[in-house]
Each structure stands twice: as structure tokens, then as C-alpha cells.
Design a protein that fits this description.
Length: 338
């Protein structure tokens, strides 16, 4: 006689582990101004807290819903124990009582620890004062018609900025701009040069709104002015070559530390070529004179700012290294004084 084996049914219950992200704290906001279209911009810092987990994976941060009233770029992050500190630029259209919301996606080497976390924030009001200086036209001339038959112009403006390291954001009532500088050193008459494309409905004017802000001092203001466009004769009259305009966005990496030497804090502006940035795992690494790693920031954009608290660092020499895809592209040294 053979043996007959019977078993009772086995029931398996699969539970999804809760996300280890427990909260996102709004540490601070710095208003950078509001543009012509009503979009307010902020330099911000958020802290993401993990419960009983030191994150070793990667992050993505996206507006929720996509394509809504919010954008966030550029941004960087650093891991500090159970916390992840995110710093960047937030753009937000203040529509009724709708708050800007985001979805943070954490991808861990252990897939069971990966998760998404959606949160909303409440930036303060960002009313922008008018600048005390003027913006004047230096030259404007026709170039040619673009592929869609729209007239393009080479534009050269002059603005008298006070001393400082200024950034500029441009907005228009109509048309598009390319090539205008995003970073400007103040202290005299500064040229702003680029290309303006006139889009229908055309009215013979370029009305330009520029937000200037200095992240280091917190100063910000706007200049708004309209300029008459020359008659181009349907793309054939008063036409010159645009080669006279200097290149405003070189493909060389840049790393600017302000101030240097630093005492309480240092603001770092980074610029990477267009093919670098988040696609190639770019990082900023801060080392002391002995080569010890003090801080690592992960860069999720090609340009942006990072603020370092130097008040807790011993005085001496430090090295900041910008690397992409595991390869060093630029190193700058700076000193901390007391």
C-alpha cells in the first residue's frame, strides 16, 4: 500500500511596508521676486526625515500634479543621518488658495524600502519692489526670420547694477528670449545681450520684465520697460549678422564661491555643460586641507546655488570639487576665517 500525503491550505498575506519618510519640514524661504506672469520664485531649503533609515539610494522630486502651477529647478540634496536636506529654486503661480505640492520618489538599493511621498508647502508672500536703477536700450537690430516665419532681433541693453553678484530672471508680455545672462556682476554699467523673437500677435514693441536678485544679501527688485522694434521689411530690411553677440552660456564648467574667504556662510554657484548634471550623477564634495570629506551635495540640475554653513567649520583652507560621472571636472579652494 502506498502512502497518501495531505496538507492543509497555506495562506500568505503580503503587506506593503509603510514609507520610511515621515515628514518634510520647510526650513526657510528666500523670496527672489515675482515675474510679469505672476510666478513667484523662492530660494528654499526642505528637510526630509526618514524613520529608522539612513537613506543610501537616489531621489527625484516632481510637481504634483505635473504641469500644474509649480516648478522646482534647479535643486540639490545631501544626506545627513536620517535626514535629507534639499535646496533649490521654487517657482509658484499663486492661484487662489492652491498650494504647491510635490511627489518625492526614493529609490533604495533594497526595493522593499523604495517609496513615494507627496507633500504640500506654503511659501510666504513674495511682493517685489521696483529697482532704483534704470534699464536702457543700447542697440537693437533685425537678424532674420526663424523657421516659423517670426522676426528675430539682436538686443543689447544697459543696466546700472550696484555692487554684488546678481542673478536675473526674464519675462515678456509676448515673444521669447534666448542668450541673455542669468548671472551678472554689479558695480557699474552692465550690458545685457541676447536674441528676441517676436511672436504673434505682434505690436511693434518688446516689453521686458527683469527680476534681479542677490542670493547672498537677499536683495531683490524688478525693472519693467517697453522698447520699440525696428522695421525689418519682412525679414529683409535693416538686417545684420548676429555673430556680433558674445556667447553668454559657455560649455565650460564654472564654480564660484562667495564670499571667499568666508566666515559664517558661503554661497556657491555652479554651472555644468548641458550634457552633464542629473543625467551623469554630478556631485559637489567639500574637503578640508587633510583630504577628509566634510560634505557631499548631489546636483539635480546644470546650474544653481548651494549654501554652506561655515560657522561650524574650523578656520583654514578647504577644497570644493565638482564631479560628473565619477570624474573630477573642477576644483576650487576657499578659506574659512573667524
Amino acid at each position: 500500500m502506498g502512502c497518501k500525503i495531505t496538507t492543509d491550505p497555506i495562506y500568505v498575506t503580503v503587506r506593503t511596508c509603510p514609507c520610511k519618510i515621515t515628514e518634510v519640514r520647510e526650513d526657510w524661504y528666500q523670496c527672489l521676486g515675482t515675474d510679469l506672469n505672476g510666478q513667484s520664485f523662492y530660494h528654499f531649503q526642505f528637510t526630509v526625515h526618514f524613520n529608522n533609515l539612513i537613506p543610501a539610494g537616489t531621489f527625484t522630486l516632481a510637481p504634483n500634479p505635473p504641469g500644474g502651477n509649480t516648478n522646482i529647478t534647479p535643486w540639490t540634496y545631501q544626506v545627513n543621518g536620517n535626514d535629507v536636506v534639499i535646496e533649490g529654486i521654487l517657482g509658484f503661480y499663486q492661484i487662489d488658495d492652491i498650494l504647491p505640492c510635490f511627489t518625492l520618489t526614493y529609490t533604495d538599493p533594497d526595493p522593499s524600502l523604495s517609496c513615494t511621498y507627496t507633500f504640500c508647502v506654503k511659501p510666504p508672500d513674495c511682493t517685489t519692489p521696483q529697482c532704483e536703477w534704470e534699464m536702457e536700450m543700447d542697440d537693437i537690430y533685425c537678424i532674420n526670420l526663424d523657421a516659423n516665419g517670426n522676426q528675430t532681433y539682436a538686443v543689447s541693453l544697459n543696466v546700472s547694477l550696484p555692487p554684488g553678484n546678481w542673478s536675473a530672471m526674464y519675462s515678456l508680455s509676448s515673444g521669447t528670449l534666448t542668450g541673455f545672462p542669468a548671472s551678472i556682476t554689479g558695480g557699474g554699467i552692465t550690458p545685457l545681450q541676447g536674441i528676441f523673437t517676436d511672436l504673434p500677435p505682434t505690436n511693434g514693441q518688446m516689453c521686458l520684465y527683469v527680476n534681479f536678485y542677490d542670493v547672498m544679501t537677499g536683495d531683490y527688485c524688478f525693472v519693467y520697460k517697453c522698447f520699440n522694434l525696428p522695421d525689418c521689411g519682412g525679414g529683409t530690411g535693416n538686417t545684420r549678422q548676429a555673430a556680433a553677440l558674445p556667447m553668454q552660456h559657455p560649455d565650460e564648467p564654472q564654480l564660484t564661491i562667495m564670499p571667499n574667504p568666508a566666515s559664517s556662510q558661503a554661497l556657491v554657484q555652479f554651472v555644468l555643460p548641458a550634457a552633464s548634471g542629473k543625467d551623469l550623477n554630478s556631485v559637489l564634495t567639500l574637503n578640508n586641507a587633510h583630504g577628509e570629506v566634510i560634505n557631499i551635495r548631489h546636483i539635480m540640475a546644470n546650474t544653481g546655488y548651494v549654501r554652506y554653513n561655515t560657522s561650524m567649520l574650523p578656520k583654514g583652507m578647504y577644497y570644493l570639487t565638482l564631479s560628473t560621472g565619477g570624474k573630477t571636472v573642477l576644483t576650487q579652494k576657499f578659506s574659512v576665517i573667524k
